[in-house]
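Below is a filled-in request sheet from our internal design queue. Each sheet records the structural input a requester submitted and the sequence that came back. We keep these sheets so that new team members can see what a complete request looks like end to end.

REQUESTER: design group, bay 2
PRIORITY: normal
MODE: inverse folding
CHAIN LENGTH: 288
BACKBONE (tokenized):
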């Protein structure tokens, strides 16, 4: 039974948010995205294992930047968590968020189910909030799928133990896990600005494919703009500019400056594009 057929017969006790979460996470596309994200740490871990088995340089050189985490994986499998998040954050994770956010409203419109959702007593504002909250929940789920997969692969292929931070301080494995949990949460929150942008784009069209393509296209464009030194005055206002600041959580003491800038910037994007999405959606004439 399609969602359009099922909606009039939904159990009254099923909340709007619960319905959105169930629908989103049951889709094959969502499961496929999570599967691809889970596979990235496996590929990274196997590649490092093969390289070190051949006597390569992986694991011998330290370093503090995101890509340099790869060089520390062979010495401590926990670093595969940090390396995998650094590898997926520039494109794979945000692309997945862009797909879910872009399809959130436009996908319902193209499938002809949006009008059924709007006749429910919840109202447009609550529906939009449920869509955004579900997208944010997916961002957390996707991020933690990467982290858990990386932790399992890292523990299987490499030794684990005390963690030497970027600043040179050594902490226990337990504290390293807590920092990894904080990093995963920070990465997920870093994607909320993109989620709000994708939701706004999704309210502008009745085509789910167009909304997804536009959101991902904007992501790629902004990522490119963030690489030009000539645009340094603008770059601090681009939503991906501070994404890799999560590495500062691996310092002792933690450098909070760029982390807080990142979270504040995401909050600004959520406020601006969330408001724009609400203004558009609440005044939109739904005919499909």
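RETURNED SEQUENCE:
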């Amino acid at each position: 039974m399609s969602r359009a057929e099922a909606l009039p017969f939904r159990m009254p006790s099923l909340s709007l948010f619960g319905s959105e979460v169930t629908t989103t996470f049951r889709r094959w596309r969502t499961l496929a995205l999570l599967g691809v994200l889970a596979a990235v740490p496996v590929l990274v871990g196997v590649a490092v294992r093969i390289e070190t088995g051949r006597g390569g340089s992986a694991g011998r050189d330290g370093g503090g930047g995101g890509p340099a985490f790869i060089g520390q994986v062979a010495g401590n499998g926990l670093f595969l968590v940090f390396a995998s998040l650094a590898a997926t954050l520039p494109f794979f994770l945000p692309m997945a968020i862009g797909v879910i956010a872009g399809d959130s409203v436009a996908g319902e419109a193209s499938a002809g189910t949006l009008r059924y959702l709007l006749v429910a007593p919840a109202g447009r504002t609550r529906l939009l909030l449920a869509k955004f909250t579900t997208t944010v929940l997916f961002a957390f789920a996707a991020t933690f799928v990467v982290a858990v997969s990386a932790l399992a692969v890292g523990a299987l292929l490499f030794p684990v133990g005390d963690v030497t931070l970027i600043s040179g301080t050594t902490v226990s494995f337990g504290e390293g896990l807590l920092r990894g949990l904080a990093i995963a949460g920070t990465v997920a929150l870093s994607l909320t600005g993109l989620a709000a942008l994708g939701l706004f784009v999704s309210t502008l069209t009745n085509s789910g494919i167009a909304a997804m393509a536009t959101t991902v296209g904007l992501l790629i464009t902004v990522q490119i703009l963030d690489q030009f030194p000539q645009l340094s005055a603008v770059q601090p206002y681009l939503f991906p500019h501070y994404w890799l600041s999560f590495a500062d959580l691996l310092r002792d003491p933690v450098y909070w400056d760029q982390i807080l800038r990142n979270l504040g910037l995401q909050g600004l994007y959520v406020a601006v594009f969330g408001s724009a999405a609400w203004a558009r959606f609440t005044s939109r004439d739904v005919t499909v």
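SHEET NOTES:
- Confidence is low (pLDDT under 50) at residues 4-14, 59-67.
- The radius of gyration is 21 Å.
FILED BY: M.R.
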